[in-house]
Amino acid sequence: MTYQPASSALSHIKVLDLTRARSGPTAARQMADWGAQVTKVEMPGDGQYADFSARHSPDFQNLHRNKRSITLDLKNPKGLEVFKTMVAENDVIIENYRPDVKFRLGIDYESLKEVNPRLVYASISGFGQDGPYVKRPGLDPIIQGMGGHMMVTGEPGRGPMRSGAAVSDMTAGLLAANGICVALLEREKSGEGQWIHTSLIEAMIFLLDFQSARWTMKKELPKQAGNNHPTNAPTGVFKTKNGYVTIAPMTAMWDKFCKALGADDMAGKPEYADADLRRENREALNEEISAYTAHKETLEWVDLMNEVGIPCGPIYTLEETFADPQVEHLGIAQTVVSETLGPTTLVGQPIHMSQTPNQMVSAAPEFGEQTDAILAEYGYSADEIRSLHEEEVL
Q1: Of 185, 197, 239, 352, which has the highest C-beta tally within 10 A?
Q2: Distance between CA atoms of residues 136 and 218, nearest Å
Q3: How far apart are CA 61 and CA 51, in angstroms?
Q4: What is the dotted CATH code of the domain comprising 14-208+329-390?
């Protein structure tokens, strides 16, 4: 398959993807979707269950579109030799092994910098590249707990609650991709690459943002607030005649909100006179609001509130999310043709660029699908490639 970039933005960048699971593949996907030539390096063997999920599952397909695949045994000296030949011509390596693995394989940054001083080397780990937890495995559910996320998520009194999305994995992957792009820009000035690394635990704390800062600044422990906003009231989920709705009036919208709700009497109650009192009396306030919202259907409230500028929206299933006219207009669901699966609809990039847009140009590769073609690009002859296959290097 001839390489076709997904965008012109990073089409001059070549990336070796040594990642598995989710955080690393997410970083590599960011590069691939913006046009980088990403080569997924996989260990020879059975590629059906790479990255802890079946190759033709929605998860794998969504993570690895716009990439190519080569099989290469990095534990074999000849495989390592081939890899270093590739490193010499690549701009970026992304890996999320346990921190010690790259050193044992001889593919750590310091070793590969000798091969290519311009190399940008990105590492993602559970807990960082050193420190007391460096050898611990770090998976998203563990990190959500240790990073404080589960104790600010869920309803009060119900115990810790995990998010439905792999938030530390995804955030770490996006942060790594951001770091790679910064390092590539810096390389234009210095001419040298560098090692950039992040961890799931740092990503989790970073994602909590103002919740984390409430502790670092004021030693204030944020509590679980369920569907309520942690600091503003009334902001939450309210039952309607046929479902649920989220309403989030800003502090300055209180009187307008009461009028739109048809609750003029509520606006004048002393226990709701200011933002602090509304927060202190949130439970009673929510009960009063729910008594009003129960008399109209969800979309009636959505239309009514939005007409007067009060933030309001329905609670969707994913089916309803992708059927929403605005979501359809934005085009985040994109279809690519897989030779194995046929037309495959995946989740595209949420970023729009006027000059260098991206697109899905290829489905996730089959196991080692482009091995021979890729090696030929690095100058290996047909006989050399055949020999590497025979020796089980590929």
Answers
A1: 197
A2: 31
A3: 11
A4: 3.40.50.10540
Tally of CA atoms within 13 A in the half-sphere of 258 that contains its CB: 17
DSSP 309: T
In the numeric block, which tokens belong to residue 335? 């279809």
Is the CB of residue 304 less than 8 Å from the CB of residue 296? yes
Enumerate the active-site residues: 169
Six token digits for residue 247: 């309403």
Domains of the chain, residue spans: 14-208+329-390, 236-315
| 360: three-class secondary structure by DSSP | coil
CB 113 within 8 A of CB 87: no
Provide the b/e sequence for 171-205 (b: ≥16 CB within 10 Å): bbbbbbbebbbebbeebeeeeebbbbbbbbbbbbb
Residuewise pLDDT in 10s, the chain (394 residues): 567 899 999 999 999 999 999 999 999 999 999 999 999 999 998 777 666 679 999 999 999 999 999 999 999 999 999 999 999 999 999 999 999 999 999 999 999 999 999 999 999 999 999 999 999 999 999 999 999 999 999 999 999 999 999 999 999 999 999 999 999 999 999 999 999 999 999 999 999 999 999 999 999 999 999 999 998 999 999 999 999 999 999 999 999 999 999 999 999 999 999 999 999 999 999 999 999 999 999 999 999 999 999 999 999 999 999 999 999 999 999 999 999 999 999 999 999 999 999 999 999 999 999 999 999 999 999 999 999 999 999 9
Q: What CATH homologous superfamily does 236-315 map to?
A: formyl-coa transferase, domain 3 (3.30.1540.10)
Segments in the chain forming alpha helices (H): 23-33, 58-64, 77-87, 101-105, 109-113, 140-146, 167-190, 200-208, 210-218, 254-261, 264-267, 275-280, 282-293, 298-307, 318-323, 325-330, 371-377, 382-390
Q: What's phi and psi for 369, nearest 5 deg?
A: -55, -40
